[in-house]
Design brief:
alpha/beta; 5-stranded parallel β-sheet
């Protein structure tokens, strides 16, 4: 069986499309928005590395800190020039909303597939997704790391998603902008792909025979 026929056969078995949010369907601007709040200037790469390794971010993302604890620790340990309240106001807006074309793409997929979201997120951004920009309403199930106490690429969060969806991994296709998260999903039996943004997502869907 050639590669095209193999993809077509696999596509027939796909029932659930599972999406990361930030970087795939949602515009997230945290790195560049953090820079103006710092007392000491830093490059985007430096901020990104610091953010990725920050224990306060990890704890808030898995529900182990409330918003005020998170804000206080970030202001203190990052040397921010703003108050805790101002930082939290700014932080909430970093998840801007759906990328252009995302809602239309999901609408085109919804008649044929179950749609779900699995995001490393937090209380404030999830409130914004739910109440302000209506992201979570676009999915049958929308699961955030802060709700389940585990974050990608921890296998536990994928297991929570499988339980919530009531579906085996082999009928799920997963999309994330993080290579580590894709590898973890693949290890559990999902078909998983690294994509960034709507154009890359659409191209992958076409390549896998799920979209024309």
């Amino acid at each position: 069986m050639d590669a095209r026929k193999a993809r077509a056969a696999a596509a027939l078995n796909v029932q659930v499309l599972l999406f990361d949010l930030g970087g795939v369907l949602v515009d997230y601007t945290g790195v560049r928005d953090m820079a103006p709040l710092l007392r000491i200037s830093a490059s985007e790469d430096e901020i990104r590395r610091h953010f990725a390794g920050c224990p306060h971010v990890a704890a808030y993302c898995t529900g182990r800190l409330d918003r005020m604890q998170f804000g206080e620790r970030m202001v203190r340990d990052w040397g921010l020039t703003v108050s805790t309240e101002r930082f939290l106001q700014e932080f909430r807006t970093w998840s801007r909303g759906l990328l252009p074309g995302a809602a239309e793409l999901l609408s085109s997929l919804r008649p044929r597939f179950r749609l779900a979201a699995l995001s490393n997120s937090n209380e404030l951004h999830w409130e914004r997704h739910t109440n302000d920009v209506g992201v979570t309403a676009l999915f049958e199930a929308a699961i955030s790391s802060h709700q389940v106490g585990a974050a990608k690429p921890d296998p536990a969060i994928y297991q929570k998603a499988l339980e919530r969806l009531g579906a085996p991994p082999e009928v799920i296709m997963f999309f994330d902008d993080s290579y580590a998260n894709v590898v973890a999903a693949s290890a559990l039996g999902m078909r998983a792909f690294q994509v960034e943004g709507i154009d890359a997502l659409r191209q992958r869907l076409v390549a896998e025979g799920l979209l024309t």
